[in-house]
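Form 7-S
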Amino acid sequence: MLDNLEKIQQLDKSNLLQNIEDVPDQIIAGWELGGKFVIPSHYYNVKQVVLTGMGGSGISSLLASSITHSSSRIPIITLQNYDLPQFVDGGTLVVITSYSGNTEESLSCLTDAINRQAKIVVITTGGEMINIARKYKIPYLEFNYGSPPRAAFGYTFGLIMQVLNRLNIAEVTDENWASAVKYLINLATKINVHSSSQQNIAKSYAEQMVGTIPIIIGAEHLSVVAYRWSTQINENAKQASWFDTLPEMNHNRICGLDFPKNLRENIKVYILSSKNIHERTILRESILGQLFDRNKINYETIYLQPSTNKLTEALSFILLGDYISFYLGILNGVNPGLIQNVDFIKEKLSQEA
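Output:
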């Protein structure tokens, strides 16, 4: 099935596959566009950063925060809600990312940031957010790309990282970025739709996941990636999936392996691993595997070879997960691009506006 391009195209009526294939180009375009962005001089003295965004737009903020966690000179927090924290003030940079420009939580944060006289950067394709940014003379990065929000990840991530980089908050060089893209392009040749199922790990993992509840586990920079895998499986494959993080889950979640009795028949655990995480967390992964074996829980640890830096590794794992979720949607016989449950909630909310 996954080697039959004609059947894939019949299901993929939204052409989500093309968006996934575009990820390396998106990452290049987002980085280059961000490099041309004119940042006001008084933005360089901010004392903290708040990155806001929901769903497909929010994942870029989460990953940017994770990647810069150990090197940032000032605090960076992420927010997926309606209201900003009380500490936000004129010394705070608030980066608001909304693909549509009409996300109600993001618009609420934008209004809140304006009222608090925070320093604001808006990232969007248009919508009401552009109108507000123009009205209040707020710096904004507008890009054009036709896809669902989750499929424009490369653009939004590139833009956010470039803003942080330009403000000397992140430490990413053009060479780092180019190296990551080169790795992605090489990986894509091995897992894209033209690579046969016999040699394609993304197709293989998708076939494993059919009929299961995939539980994705990650640590540090890969915790956000695990979240992305699970939500992409939810949205693209319309399949139940959850994620968890190490070392936190070692302190609670592992006690929930006994019931229901048919648990082991339904779940499959995937641990996303790396040499770039804390050595004690790597040890925890090994012990966790022993615990899963003892409880007869089906699991697999996934590494990417060769081992690279955190930026390249996170982007590569995300690309792999995006392909897996797309293939899983095809195996489930659904259009991966549709998100009818999300649309239902948005429609109901609009009726109560």
